[in-house]
Design a protein that fits this description.
Elements: H1 2-13, E1 25-30, E2 37-40, E3 44-50, E4 52-57, E5 60-65, E6 68-72, E7 77-84, E8 91-97, H2 100-109, E9 126-130, H3 133-144, H4 149-168, H5 173-179, H6 185-198, H7 206-212, H8 217-228, H9 232-250, H10 255-261, H11 267-278, H12 282-289
Antiparallel strand pairs: 1-8, 2-7, 3-6, 3-8, 4-5, 4-7, 6-9
Helix pairs in contact: 1-3, 3-4, 7-8
Length: about 300
Amino acid sequence: MALDELRALLARHARPDTTTAIDSVLISKVEQSAPPSPSMTGTVLALIAQGAKRIALGDRVYEYRAGQYLIASVDLPITGHFTEASPERPALGFGLTLHPATVAELLLQAPPGDLPPAGGGAPSGLAVSDASGQLIDAVIRLLRLLDQPRDLAVLAPLIKREILWRIITGEQGAVVRQLGLADSSLTHIARAVRWIRDHYTRSFRVEDVAQMSGMSVSAFYRNFQAVTAMSPIQFQKQIRLQEARLLLATHPNDVTGVGMRVGYDSPSQFSREYRRQFGAPPSQDAARLRGSTLGTASTLA
């Protein structure tokens, strides 16, 4: 079966850091279920060949398992973990980073009328679907190139474009197509998300970010909530708390200083919101984090 070959390829080529010799291609191998942890999704196609994963975005929960894929069309703060993974049967996944410029180029090459319109409103930033046989076949052919270095430089870009075409024309195609449209609602919200991430320590007015995004306040708020499952202020809070947790892993004795560095003026408010998010006050969580490593890079969602 196709999934059997896909599992074998992923298991053989998995590395601790998820990277591969093919640009923008990631491989995940996880041998045990761990407690949910925070991370950023990146913009990615994530296909599971073995195991299952659960992701929380705001008040939404997404689950996907072998033979299913997840699309993350915006870099979002999530909490997630593999729910089925063991040394005997590790969770195995394939990831492909989605670049808006590549999506736009492919859309321009598609014959007129071959693609339905992307739609007016912004879709959710995450979506899950069953993988078609054509998509799985293309992923297998791409991973086979890891055993054929001579062919990699020429054939890998072609197969990556095929994979992108399969998802553009698949069930979640509207989400991916909006990623490549310069004036789509998703693109406007993605611009706001980047601004908030880059300036998460600063207070802001929603009206100002909406204006910067080229949308009315009501349309901005509605579309931001649709994409991220959060309000802009809640989104900023998620970023602040995730950054604080990463800082506490290396500065466990400076809880007040970490809170101020991520934008909190009140230590009590920082402690209260941190505990609500992670289930323990900052000092206690910092002690638990000591000796462990939390990653900040965009990884296989």
